Amino acid sequence: MESSQYDIAIIGGGILGLSTAMQLADRAPRWRVAVLEKEEDLATHQTGHNSGVMHSGIYYRPGSQKAQFCVAGRNNLVRFCEENEIEYQQCGKVIVAIEESELGRLQDLYERGTANGVPGLEIVGPERLKEIEPYTTGLRALWAPHTGIVDFTRVATAYAGKFQQAGGDIFTGAPVRKITRPGGSGGSLALETPKGILQAKHLINCAGLYADRIASMSGENVQVRIIPFRGEYYTLRPESHHLVSGLIYPVPDPQFPFLGVHFTRNIKGHVEAGPNAVLALRREGYRKRDFDLGESLGSLTYPGFWKMALKYWKIGLGEVYRSYNKRVFLRDLQRLLPEIKDSDLAGGGSGVRAQAVAKDGSLLDDFSILQGRDAIHVLNAPSPGATSSLAIGEHIAGLALENFGAPD
Questions:
Q1: Are 38 and 4 found together in one domain?
Q2: Quick check: helix, strand or coil at residue 112?
Q3: pLDDT tens for each residue of 299-323
């Protein structure tokens, strides 16, 4: 590390940490800011395993941070991509009601999206649905023409480039092992990494899957635990890509913060089918066999985990069963796309969602940003976190300017 003394250290080189760094460099150019990323490359975890969907803001409770940040963030993201020649597409999305019991929830989504200012929303019947997605069937669908797709890793890389051009420092391969205050409670923070000790007056925690650990390490009394959920995908074989024109989603269960298996065409031309949502036995457990004893015990000994499990056990068992049974996965996909066959599906990838769970077992639905005495901690920022990255980064930069004071 060329210099070990900074005004602000940002832990986490994903899309939120890099957006925050870029906007701090723009709004507070006198501050010395460093980003610490534990991997050798940036944006390798939640950002790098993202489906690439630029959400429009339909699902989220009006007035929530998710709703506000998603709508503003998507608009800012489109502008950023255009200004920086990053390819994106507004391919549109349909949310399809298959059963009569889903029609009321579909109407609720339309009203939510309208209240959140999502443009162009339209509830369509079977004939119009066939025009949009010829191989999909349903009673009705919510058509969101401005939902898009982008490569979020490329977006994060662009954020990093602008931050570095403004004089910011990025240290990769630098996991934070310990945080201390050598000068006492009013002194600077010492962040110990394999590359040395970095001194910082203030900390911004964008560590994603390890955000709760970093917050606890810095002395915060954290009231949530990150529980990792793995989402597994299949991909459609190239000869089957014609079955999906854009994005096809089911009507979600409002009691569960996952959207159900769906079809996603990504910016690279692939079509993904999934994901499910199963408990991962390692925080970065992208494969079924990935296991870490300490991290698994950290989940299993947390009282909130068992309260969550008691509430969602039936749904959870169904997700695990689908994970190990391709026929069940296929059956659920066929609800949206009846013509899809086993032979259309090839192996796919996976991602891990950092889901914050409270001690009472509730799953945090909204973003959660905790302000400490000399730190800001992003404790929950699942989807639409990537879509909202510019709005979230702007918000965090504003909190830093308000609470951290002017640089020396």
A1: yes
A2: helix
A3: 999 999 999 999 988 888 989 989 9
